[in-house]
Structure formats: C-alpha cells, structure tokens
Write a structure and sequence with these properties.
Blueprint (H helix, E strand, L loop, with lengths): L1 H28 L6 H8 L3 H7 L3 H26 L3 H18 L1 H13 L15 H15 L8 H21 L5 H14 L7
Amino acid sequence: MTEPGRRERKRQEKLDHIAQTGFRLFEAHGFAAVTMEQIAAEADVAKGTLYSHFPVKEAVLAHWFHVQLEEDLERLLPICLADANFKRGMRRLLDASASWHEQHRDYLLPYLRYRFMNVGEPNVDENDARADLVRAFFALIASGQESGELRHNQPAARLALFFHFMYLAALMRWLTTPKADLHDEFTAVLDLFLKGSRTSKS
C-alpha cells in the first residue's frame, strides 16, 4: 500500500523540480527566449521525459504557478476562514492574489492562454490538480452560508464556480487595460457578488 504513494511522491518531486528549473530560466532569460531543450538540459532530464509530462513550456509555467498557489493557499486559507466573516476573508484572499499577480504579470498571458486553449483536453489537468482556486472560494462561500452571511438558495459549489469566472474576467481586464488596478478590479468583483447589479427600485 505504501509503494504507490512513494512512486507518486517521486513523480511529483520530479515535476516540481522541472517546473522550478524552468521558472529560473524564464526569470534569467525571459519566457519567450527559453526552449524546452534548455529546460531539459538544465533540469538534467531526457527530452523524452520532459515532453512526456509537459508538452510545451507553457505547461511547465502552469505547473510552477500551481505549486505556488498550493503553498500560498495552505498558509492563507485557514487565516481567511478564521476571520469568521465572508467579506473580510475573501477580501484578504483577493488582496493577496492581486499582489502575487502584480509580481508575475509578465507570465500571466501565456499561462492563461495555455489554460483556456486546453480546456477539456484529455490529461490537461494531470499536473495541476492541486491548483484549484475554486476550492478556496468554495470554502469561504460555504462558511459564509453557514454563518448566515450568504443565502442558501444556490449551492456553494455553483457560487464558487461563478465567482471564479468573475475573478478571471477581472484578471483579464487588468491585463488588457493599462491603467487598471487589480486590487480595485477584485474589489468590484466582490461587491458585485455580494450586492448584485440591481437598484433598490428594481
């Protein structure tokens, strides 16, 4: 029973090592300039091994993103939930996310392009099962429903997915609007989620 776990752990360590190596190269030379052959050589893995896990360098970048997200959520989500207030907890999570994205803006378009172009493709999520930001949204929304801050007429899982779509829309608007502020964009998403867009007269 322990052998499959050991194999999976070794596999995950290899994927993480490749992704970390790739990101160091991206930082040193620029994402566009780095090739898969360079990543394989620097990570000391065969090109066939690299391609068996990551078909393109955008997949390497995506895996690195997801490792960072997993580590950040492990630390941050309990703090957000401990606040026992949906709006404050979600605002804390969104502010941290905005700050992280601001530091990695140059990589976001290739990452998002890869993710959107491969939606529904077989095995596309093989390397990023840990990256589900929706689970953090779900945890906060479910907690808000339990405390009575949010209504129960929609399942938390559906609301978390809808919230994620708005989150991605805000992220794309920020990337394509030079003067936009991501913290403000996420604040607008949270406000729309909590209040809707109807007037009091509607």
